[in-house]
Amino acid sequence: SRPAPRPPPAPCRANASVATLPNFKGQPQQVRDFLLYKHCRDFPLLQDVPLGKCAPPVFLLLVIKSSPRNYERRELVRRTWGRERQVRGAPLRRLFLVGTAPNPLEARKVNRLLALEAQAHGDILQWDFHDSFFNLTLKQVLFLKWQETRCTNASFVLNGDDDVFAHTDNMVSYLRDHNPDRHLFVGQLIHSVGPIRVPWSKYYVPTVVTQEEQYPPYCGGGGFLLSRFTATALRRAASTLDLFPIDDVFLGMCLKQEGLKPASHGGIRTAGIGAPSARVSSFDPCFYRELLLVHRFLPYEMLLMWDALSRPNLTCGQQMQVY
Question: What pathway is this protein said to act in by its record (predicted)?
């Protein structure tokens, strides 16, 4: 069964006062939109998952950020590493976090698709906000708020993009050595970097958004693992901090606010993986056998890699090709 829908929140209005900020009109559209609407945090839930999704026990909750039109990626995740199953007795559950397409015509079509997916798989959480790069932080905050009432018992969470390859068996082995009620936040650690001030960059953050010249340490947003203790801490911090347009940096800010630190895990490669030599493909499954997560994979590559790693006769130490 599905939860009863709550009344929709009142539409959130733009904060017109930001138009008086220095050089507001000269900023790119995504920066102006972010500043006008960053106070908006309450959006109708268009698709919810069945009430039993997080029926205990849930050892690892796979939380996958997806753009509305990325149907093929979601399907491949469902067929491969995102399958809901038990790994050596540890139950895995899957959720996709989705907004709406900014174009109204496309939104109607894609919302129908997402409704069909939700009906078939029970794994879609969709809110009625424009799904965009600068709204990924909003997506994280809405999930944390949803989790508070619906899924706090999950011991651990994988938070990742829909184009990562996650070796969920290895994740379970790693997480078995950790206490879900202690701090854990691991990924590819990024530190000693600050805002990119060049306007043509996807990651452009002008001084009108932040005067700070250095970000706190954070983990690359392609994929990271956290405990339920840390999810609670992030939720607490996120409710008090202003939203920031770069989602992985925002989570670093939340950790700092809580007096917690992100950590590095060598098996999480959000910047991809290179081949050790020109003669060996970086698509050799033996590279991936010991890793936890790699960003980024095309859908067909995900299926090929999953198939190769699932073969009982995979032998390493000799060159092995997926295709």
Answer: Protein modification
23-268 maps to CATH 3.30.420 = no
Helix (H, G, I), strand (E, B) or coil at 176: coil
Buried b (16+ CB within 10 A) or exposed e, 36-63: bbbebbebeebbbbeeebbeeebbbbbb
* Cβ proximity of 309 and 302 under 8 Å: no
Q: Are 102 and 131 in contact (CB under 8 A)?
A: yes
